[in-house]
Design goal:
Layout: H1 3-22, E1 32-43, E2 47-57, E3 64-75, E4 78-85, E5 89-91, E6 96-106, H2 107-119, E7 123-135, E8 144-155, H3 156-160
Antiparallel strand pairs: 1-2, 2-6, 3-4, 3-5, 3-7, 4-6, 7-8
Length: 162
């Protein structure tokens, strides 16, 4: 076979292979993550530790394998607490599970929140944001990172009147 035809066939094979790989993309939607409960576990002079229960919902039509997550809780626009977790969680399609993680804040963050609360009409605006690391079921390492975010408002007067 002439050299020019052989080179043409090699280039054609490489182009077809690359074109086939271009169709393999990952289209996972981040899980819906919301706050289910928050509870003070330990309070020191400079740091407070909370137990945060998250509701994790898989909105994909395939299993979602969480390998870990990082998160931050903002209240009224300022950083309140943060945390990381290396807990694994396997969620089937259209399923939800509860995940309990730790959350750490400092005393300065609580003082800022109390000052902000005294200036508002008792409404707390919160935002939970972070990243979920996930991958394949039998791999211990994560393959992808997806960001998540959940916002809401909590009226304290409604809670206290019940």
């Amino acid at each position: 076979m002439p050299l020019i035809i052989r080179r043409f066939l090699i280039i054609l094979a490489v182009c077809l292979t690359l074109n086939g790989c271009a169709g393999i993309t990952y289209h996972a939607q981040p899980p819906q993550i919301s706050i289910n409960n928050i509870q003070l576990v330990d309070a020191q002079l400079l740091e407070q530790r909370y137990e945060l229960t998250l509701r994790v919902q898989n909105t994909n039509d395939f299993p979602f394998f969480i390998k870990g997550l990082s998160y931050q809780l903002d209240i009224n626009g300022s950083k309140f607490a943060h945390g990381v977790s290396k807990q694994s969680l396997d969620i089937l399609p259209y399923e939800e599970k509860l995940l309990t993680v730790s959350l750490v804040s400092n005393t300065l963050g609580i003082i800022n929140q109390l000052q902000a609360l005294s200036k508002t009409n008792d409404a707390l605006h919160f935002r939970l944001k972070g990243n979920v690391s996930h991958g394949a079921y039998n791999l211990t390492t994560s393959l992808y990172n997806l960001p998540f975010e959940k916002e809401g408002t909590l009226k304290l007067s409604t809670l206290l009147n019940k």
